[in-house]
């Protein structure tokens, strides 16, 4: 499992972009993790699935609400990663009204999640292998803090916890 001090694994996530701009075409666009985190502080949180109850009611809204405070604490970008495709993540972004506050990144095949060692096997629930619920503060591609939830928990990966760590 990835730990504090480690570099994020080489991976490509996918982001659905609603409008053209900044060299991005409309539709799914690749996000090279190493390039996208270079020289930046990223508040990254991951969760088992788009449109799931805790993720939709608490996890994503907390980061949207704390966007300005996280920015003030030195965070350049907020990323939400889930083992879903870019189209699902784009639809969820619209539903959650993340706008430009949270980048909704699909890890469709779970390659990033597997490479971090932070997977959750939900095969018995019909969801396959997903990402565990966690948050991390990433500075220039390296893990500065890591908060991994226990099974079925939502206690340490919330926006308030990561905000306190970013401020500290």
UniProtKB/TrEMBL annotation:
InterPro entries: PRX5-like (IPR037944), Redoxin (IPR013740), Thioredoxin-like_sf (IPR036249), Thioredoxin_domain (IPR013766). Keywords: Antioxidant, Oxidoreductase, Peroxidase, Redox-active center. It holds the Pfam family Redoxin. It comes from the Bacteria. One of its GO terms (biological process) is hydrogen peroxide catabolic process. The keyword RNA-binding does not apply. The keyword Thylakoid does not apply. One of its GO terms (cellular component) is cytoplasm. It catalyses: a hydroperoxide + 2 glutathione = an alcohol + glutathione disulfide + H2O. Its EC number is 1.11.1.27. The active site is at residue 55. One of its GO terms (molecular function) is thioredoxin peroxidase activity. Residues 2-168 form the Thioredoxin domain. Belongs to the peroxiredoxin family. Prx5 subfamily. PANTHER family: PEROXIREDOXIN (PTHR10430), PEROXIREDOXIN-5, MITOCHONDRIAL (PTHR10430:SF16). Thiol-specific peroxidase that catalyzes the reduction of hydrogen peroxide and organic hydroperoxides to water and alcohols, respectively. Plays a role in cell protection against oxidative stress by detoxifying peroxides. This is Glutathione-dependent peroxiredoxin.
């Amino acid at each position: 499992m990835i730990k504090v001090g480690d570099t994020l694994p080489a991976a490509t996530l996918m982001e659905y972009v609603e409008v053209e701009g900044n060299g991005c075409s409309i539709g799914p666009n690749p996000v090279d993790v190493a390039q996208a985190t270079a020289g930046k502080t990223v508040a990254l949180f991951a969760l088992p699935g788009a449109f799931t109850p805790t993720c939709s009611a608490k996890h994503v809204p907390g980061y949207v609400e704390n966007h300005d405070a996280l920015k003030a604490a030195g965070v350049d970008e907020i990323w939400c990663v889930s083992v879903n495709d870019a189209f699902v993540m784009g639809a969820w972004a619209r539903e959650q009204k993340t706008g430009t506050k949270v980048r909704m990144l699909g890890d469709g095949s779970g390659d990033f999640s597997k490479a971090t060692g932070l997977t959750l096997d939900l095969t018995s629930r019909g969801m396959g292998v997903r990402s565990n619920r966690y948050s991390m503060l990433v500075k220039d591609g390296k893990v500065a803090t890591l908060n991994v939830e226990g099974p079925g928990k939502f206690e340490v990966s919330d926006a308030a916890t990561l905000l306190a760590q970013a401020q500290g």
